[in-house]
Amino acid sequence: MDNMDKAGDAINLTSAFAMVSHDIKNSLGILLKFIGMLSENCELEQCGMTHQCADMEYEVRRINNNLVKLLTLFKADEGVYLLNVDAHSVKDFLDEALLEHGVILRQKGIEYEVECDHELYWYFDRNLMMGVMGNAISNALRYTSDRIRLTAEASPRGLAIGVEDNGDGFPAGMLERQSGVMNPESGFLNNNTGLGLYFTQTVLDLHQHDGIRGHVKLANHADQSGGIFSILLP
């Protein structure tokens, strides 16, 4: 009887987590809209709180992105996530991913560029990949000096996407241990980058094609002038 009660509690807790997470996500979406309106008014009136508004939006968006990751990982682990793969313009997709961070880019004076063939199309789940790009761009905005760059090109093994910044680059210890963060039991998952890498690899695993498995990699520019977050999507 005790075992049945415990099983029932586990099911209830699982359902409660999903419901509360969705409710929080909806509230964060509303909050982001209010912050966006506040930011626009601040710019128009030149109230001097522009950077504070940008910081506030960044943090709320980061919380929202982390919640999306947890919900997706939860569904993938339960085997209930329905993959919605379709053909998408990669250039339009990257532009849209940047547009979500448009206010922060503008208010912090961060320059950006997208290097991608306008004719490049690829099959992927747009919502999942938007989560991957949101995480990568968010990290780049956090550590860049004043510029980020998005790249994409087709290769024989898949679609290669890169997010580059011109900050201090990834710490050597993180680069050495990055393969370990794909394990959900890794203590490295305690930080935001670790969760993002695990989420990204999970998304790439869901997109396996003809036995080809994608991968995520962190690296620094040869001259140490920034980090490179790159993925290969089968």
CATH superfamily of the largest domain: Histidine kinase-like ATPase, C-terminal domain
Tally of helical segments: 7
Rg, Cα atoms, Å: 19 Å
Instruction: Specify the helix fraction band.
Output: 40-55%
Overall pLDDT score: 82
Number of beta strands? 7
CATH architecture of the largest domain: 2-Layer Sandwich
Query: N-to-C terminal Cα separation, in Å?
Result: 48 Å
| CATH level-3 fold name of the largest domain | Heat Shock Protein 90
Low-confidence stretches: 184-192
Q: Which CATH class of the largest domain?
A: Alpha Beta
Strand coverage percent: 15-25%
Number of discrete domains:
2
The main sheet comes to: 5 strands, mixed
Shape: globular
Helix-strand sequence:
HHEHHEEHEEHHEE
Which secondary-structure class do the elements indicate?
alpha+beta
Strand line-up of the largest beta sheet: 2-4-5-7-6
Search tags:
234 residues, alpha+beta, Heat Shock Protein 90, 2 domains, 7 helices, 55% helix
Describe this structure in words.
With 234 residues, the protein is α+β, with helices and mostly antiparallel strands. It folds into two domains: 2-78; 85-233, Histidine kinase-like ATPase, C-terminal domain (Heat Shock Protein 90, 2-Layer Sandwich). It contains seven helices and seven strands, in the order ααβααββαββααββ. A hairpin with a 6-residue loop joins strand 6 and strand 7 (227-233). The N and C termini lie far apart (48 Å).
Topology:
Layout: H1 2-45, H2 50-78, E1 85-89, H3 90-99, H4 102-107, E2 111-115, E3 121-125, H5 126-143, E4 147-155, E5 158-165, H6 172-177, H7 192-206, E6 215-220, E7 227-233
Parallel strand pairs: 2-4
Antiparallel strand pairs: 1-3, 4-5, 5-7, 6-7
Helix pairs in contact: 1-2, 2-5, 2-7, 3-5, 5-7
